[in-house]
């Protein structure tokens, strides 16, 4: 018991020293970056005006309200949220099509996946906005959502397929022996286990979706990036606005990463209990 206590204390101390080292390295890196930017801007003769940035985040007329950047962030959230749900649905259907016994289903799923993964997102966005949207009378918002969903869905399909195929075949056989239908088998047995296994890469794809959503500014949707472009064009606060936009994107993606770490810990605890 004493040996276990010493080992635990040593491990805790080692983790503490590593955490301090990581914090110190991060602090030094950020300080070096700040010094580099300050020196570069001084040589360029750039006049920093950070005091003007807060009014583009929040307004104080008739109470505190969202500024232009926060309004753009809300549009980004709506596009990303809708695209994420549709991408998961498209990815799941494609993954099941790839594993289907039907040759037609496998062919359609494989063709869609290869075309989507091997062509630029910007081209797909323009194609849907300028060609498909007028035919179907889609607004720019939904054209952007479908373009992002189809693009990300191709990658989600491979992630889900990998998670499903990683499960033991005995899971399927046990479900069949209980008389469960294919739909019930996937819903109650296969997908809960598969999603738990592929949660980290799915999160990485969600983070990629948040960053890829910046391209919707090319079709005149006033998301976070487009609002930043408009502010820069009006005020010439180039570095201040773009650094603020980058910091907002970083905060969103880091929050997603930490949320998944929390979910992974909860899942691990549940596994230990059962």
Describe this structure in words.
The chain is mostly helical. It has 2 domains: 2-46; 54-273, MetI-like (MetI-like fold). The protein has 11 helices and 2 strands; from the N terminus they run ααββααααααααα. A two-stranded antiparallel ribbon has the order 1-2. Helix 3 (68-98) packs antiparallel against helix 4 (103-117), helix 5 (121-136) packs across helix 6 (140-165) and helix 10 packs antiparallel against helix 11. The longest helix is centred in the N-terminal third of the chain and has 43 residues, at 2-44. The radius of gyration is 24 Å and the shape is globular. The two termini are 26 Å apart. The model is unreliable at 269-274 (pLDDT under 50).
Write the layout of secondary structure elements.
Blueprint: H1 2-44, H2 54-57, E1 58-59, E2 65-66, H3 68-98, H4 103-117, H5 121-136, H6 140-165, H7 169-177, H8 182-197, H9 199-212, H10 224-235, H11 238-273
Antiparallel strand pairs: 1-2
Helix pairs in contact: 3-4, 3-6, 3-10, 4-6, 5-6, 6-8, 6-9, 7-8, 9-11, 10-11
Q: How much is the radius of gyration in Å?
A: 24 Å
Strand content: under 5%
Helix content: over 70%
What is the CATH C level class of the largest domain, in words?
Mainly Alpha
Number of domains: 2
Structural class: mainly alpha
Stretches where pLDDT falls below 50 for ≥5 residues? 269-274
Q: What fold name stands as the CATH topology of the largest domain?
A: MetI-like fold
In order across it, which strands form the biggest sheet?
1-2
Q: So how many helices?
A: 11
What sort of overall outline do the alpha carbons produce when their principal axes are compared? Answer: globular
